[in-house]
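Researcher: Quick test of sequence recovery. C-alpha cells follow.
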C-alpha cells in the first residue's frame, strides 16, 4: 500500500464547506491557508454570491 502522506490520515483536520456543508478534508495544497479555506471546490466558491456579481468566464 503506497501513500504520499506521512502520518495517519485520521489525524487530518476537516471542516464543513460554508456553501454546501460538506466536510472537506485537509489537503496539502491548503496547508498554508487552511484557515482561509471556506469552500470545498471552485464551484462553491463562485456559488457563495452569484446574485449581485456577474462573473465572466475565463
Ligand atoms: Zn461546497
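Model:
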Amino acid at each position: 500500500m503506497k501513500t504520499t502522506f506521512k502520518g495517519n490520515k485520521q489525524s487530518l483536520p476537516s471542516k464543513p464547506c460554508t456553501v454546501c456543508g460538506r466536510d472537506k478534508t485537509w489537503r496539502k495544497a491548503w496547508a498554508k491557508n487552511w484557515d482561509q479555506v471556506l469552500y470545498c471546490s471552485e464551484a462553491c466558491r463562485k456559488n457563495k454570491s452569484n446574485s449581485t456579481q456577474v462573473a465572466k468566464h475565463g
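The chain has a mean pLDDT of 81.
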